[in-house]
Write a structure and sequence with these properties.
By secondary structure, the protein is of the alpha/beta class. It has 33 helices and 23 strands.
């Protein structure tokens, strides 16, 4: 028989032996390149396990069924190769190590082309297919398989024929894979939670290394571009000195706020407890003190302990606030690296979230068609590199980071091995879902201490996620929070928290508000829009702005930039927003009103008042409750009632923000133990996917809960966007017909780039609010993969420049009858 193949197309083919040994060798080297402090296996053992997994991951491709599928397109359940490869790896790893390690190999390989799943998931037609596939190998390809494996297996005293006999014995003895693995999991379950988490993270690491190496090898990706990405010295203090020279008034060290910022910066980065063998840190300090600068300087101090440096991963809760931090990091890195950065910017800095196109450098910008075509040829390869976080510095979201650590999705986990050994900064860490604070803290602690990953939790309101003598607090949390320079606001409770109707609050506001500017933060889009409409009619001498997710992301970004300029210019304005403004949006108002919510949200919005101490006296943060026309409090519609009750108790006790925060988060940890225990139980049993009593499967861990009953609609705000939508439809249609793989890849690349662009013009709306546009207007166009509203229709009926999507259309529908 001809040599077995792993990949085949009209312009490329690769032998199976070549692919398997390249993946295995690269996997082993990746594990050996890490600094690890494991207790379950040694690093040498882990590297060998990774090698074996790499060598066996495509074992099922040795059947004639797969080879015919590859070369002739003959597809059936017998051509599938994940499960047979997983069983082969299980049997081999069990002979060499033990059943626990063998189970890891089984889990990692079985779904290496999908998402990780529990070993207890049901497999249809399992035994018929497996027995038929192994008989096929024995009858048709055994000699070719021996050429691949026998030399390697000799050192273990095993031949491929004896391995297949072991597999036959296993299949004969085990008539239910789920029952078999359930017994193993229960038999080997650790009582030590840290060991259970370590085993879980080891599984994710082995999976990450396999899928990333496999994908890159199959796509023939060369990652030389990123060599040395973490080795450059970045000095934040030098950059700040340069800013002082260029903008002496803004950075004047004699200003009280700048004096305090400089003191804070020096104290944070000169903390004597920052050390190579110290992995857990917190930084708790007021909004506006310069935590971003200090944290980046801290990360680069950690880097100085290592010859090759460490990757820095800076995480924020929302995509809407990433740009300003990314821009700041870019200025710092650009200042330090100069031409090096200009030549290869994505080598040193990557912005990664669902809206950001993943391209090396600026390949498509301002280039001719031939260059764009060439860029598209390489887009998917470049995407593989960038999605696995090879860059020296990453600015990303909580979703991208935390769901790559506690998650099951292939597209996320493939970067986990590059999170290992990095410096991770979690900014506004209180935005981790409160019901998972404890388990997130336990996982981050094990990631730090056994996988040598530096973790910095940063916020103005530090929740009790990680604490204890193993954690270094970079500054005294009270020292700056209680300093007069940063004690910039007074908290006021309105109406003893008896709820206002919208009209009652507007009346109160009309008779009590007299400042130059203010921010009103509502809990729902509906209440925000109702307030906007009424206040806009009354306050004629103010500029009144609406800021909600009814605006497309592109408009929200422009709106925030406009508001910032007008605040700096001293314009009289009122901004009515939802919670999207709470974290990281660099706006500062004299007075803030906040509909009642969890304490961390209240404290976050307080950071939008007198943010830089620019207003005389203290800013004012007013807390009130709003209710709808059915007497329902808006806070109770969207927030967990337990959080609201805890907040009410803490607010009644009063005292400083920092004291209230400590009591608030302590009460939270007491109140949300069940979800933490259920998720931890799933982690200890490698339950990535299966619904079981007393467990929350790992796939259910999510940072942002999807809101049911919503639809994403692309708003063609201009004719250019409408043309892009039509172009996207043409691409989807062309993909169905294309024969050439090269042309297919180019179409897929173009499709993804356009999708990223259009995401900035999309809104998520409740379906019942769209009903009228479907029925009476019929202006929402439905393509198979997305929905959109044309330029003329959105402007005429559905979208308003000031408030975004309209619940009630601007005009009645055009009649189909002539009169």
């Amino acid at each position: 028989m001809e040599e077995l193949l792993s990949h085949y197309s009209s312009d490329f083919k690769r032998t199976l032996k070549e692919h398997l040994f390249q993946v295995a060798d690269r996997s082993k080297k990746t594990i050996l390149s890490k600094d690890l402090n494991l207790t379950i296996v040694t690093q040498k053992e882990l590297s060998d396990i990774s090698f074996i997994i790499g060598l066996l991951h495509d074992f099922g491709k040795t059947t004639t069924y797969f080879q015919k599928y590859l070369t002739r397109g003959e597809n059936s359940s017998l051509s599938h190769h994940g499960l047979i490869s997983a069983v082969a790896a299980y049997c081999l790893l069990k002979e060499i190590y033990n059943e626990q390690i063998a189970t890891l190999g089984y889990v990692v390989i079985k779904k290496h082309h999908g998402n990780l799943e529990s070993p207890l998931e049901k497999n249809e037609r399992t035994y018929y297919d497996l027995e038929t596939q192994f008989e096929n190998i024995k009858s048709h390809t055994i000699k070719a398989v021996e050429k691949i494996y026998n030399n390697f297996l000799e050192k273990y005293g095993i031949s491929i024929r004896s391995l297949i006999e072991s597999i036959d014995d296993f299949l004969f003895a085990v008539n239910d894979l789920r029952s078999h693995f359930r017994k193993i999991i229960l038999r080997n379950e650790f009582k030590d939670e840290a060991k259970s988490i370590e085993l879980f993270l080891l599984t994710n690491l082995l999976y990450s290394v396999l899928i990333d190496t496999d994908k890159k090898n199959a796509a023939r990706v060369n990652d030389d571009y990123f060599k040395g990405a973490t080795e450059e010295t970045i000095n934040v203090a030098d950059y700040i000195d340069d800013c002082r020279q260029k903008e002496p008034e803004k950075f004047d060290p004699q200003k009280p706020i700048n004096k305090m910022r400089n003191k804070f910066f020096k104290e944070a980065i000169n903390n004597k407890d920052i050390a190579k063998d110290q992995f857990l840190y917190t930084l708790t300090a007021p909004t506006g003190i310069g935590k971003t600068f200090a944290s980046f300087a801290f990360a680069n101090k950690i880097n100085s302990f290592f010859k090759n440096g460490r990757r820095v991963i800076y995480c924020l809760p929302y995509t809407s606030i990433i740009d300003q931090n990314y821009d700041e990091f870019e200025k710092i890195i650009q200042f330090n690296l100069g031409d090096k950065y200009a030549r290869r910017p994505t080598k040193y800095l990557l912005k990664h979230h669902y809206l950001s196109p993943l391209q090396l450098d600026s390949e498509v910008k301002n280039e001719d068609d031939s260059r764009e075509s060439k860029s598209l040829d390489h887009y998917l390869s470049n995407k593989l590199l960038l999605e696995s976080w090879e860059s020296g510095n990453i600015v990303t979201t909580f979703v991208q980071l935390l769901e790559s650590i506690i998650g099951n999705r292939n597209s996320y986990l493939k970067k986990f091995h590059n999170i290992i050994n990095s410096v991770v900064i979690l900014d506004e860490v209180q935005n981790i879902p409160v019901n998972f604070y404890q388990v997130a803290g336990q996982v981050l602690r094990v990631l730090a201490e056994r996988f040598n990953t530096y973790i910095l939790l940063m916020t103005a309101t530090q929740p009790d996620i990680i604490s204890g003598p193993e954690v270094v607090n970079l500054v005294n949390d009270r020292k700056y929070a209680e300093d007069p320079v940063f004690a910039r606001v007074n908290l006021k409770i309105l109406n003893d928290l008896n709820p206002f109707s919208i009209d009652e609050f507007v009346d109160f506001f009309e008779h009590n508000f007299g400042e130059d500017n203010c921010l009103i933060v509502c809990n729902t889009i509906r209440s925000a829009l109702d307030l906007y409409e009424k206040i806009n009619d009354i306050f004629m001498d103010y500029k009144v702005y609406s800021l909600t997710t009814n605006l497309i992301p592109a408009d929200r970004k422009n709106r925030i930039e406009k508001i910032n300029k007008e605040l700096e210019a001293g314009e009289k304005l009122i901004v009515i927003s939802t919670q999207l403004i709470e974290a990281g949006v660099d706006l500062s108002f004299k007075e803030v009103y906040r509909d009642f919510g969890p304490l961390d949200s209240i404290i976050q919005v307080a950071g939008r008042s007198n943010r830089n101490g620019e207003y005389e006296g203290k800013g004012i943060v007013n807390i009130m409750k709003l209710k709808d026309d059915k007497d329902r409090e808006f806070s109770k519609i969207i927030y967990n009632p337990v959080l609201l009750e805890i907040c009410s108790e803490v607010l009644k006790e009063g005292n400083s923000f920092i004291d209230m925060s400590k009591r608030y988060f302590a009460k939270i940890n007491e109140s949300f133990t069940r979800d933490n225990q259920y998720l931890l139980k799933a982690i200890s049993r490698l339950n990535y996917s299966r619904d079981r009593d007393g467990e929350i499967p790992i796939k259910e861990f999510t940072i942002i809960e999807e809101q049911a009953g919503k639809e994403d609609i692309i708003i063609c705000k201009n004719e250019v966007i409408e043309r892009r939508v039509k172009e996207l439809i043409d691409i989807y249609e062309a993909i169905k017909e294309v024969d050439s793989k090269a042309e297919l890849n180019k179409l897929i690349a173009k499709k993804e780039l356009i999708n990223k662009e259009l995401a900035s013009y999309s809104v998520s709306i409740y379906t019942n609010q769209l009903d009228i546009y479907y029925s009476d207007y019929n202006i929402i166009n439905q393509f198979k993969y997305f929905k959109y509203v044309k330029y003329d229709d959105q402007a005429k009926y559905l979208y308003d420049e000031e408030i975004g999507f309209l619940r009630e259309p601007k005009e009645p529908p055009e009649s189909t009858f002539a009169f």
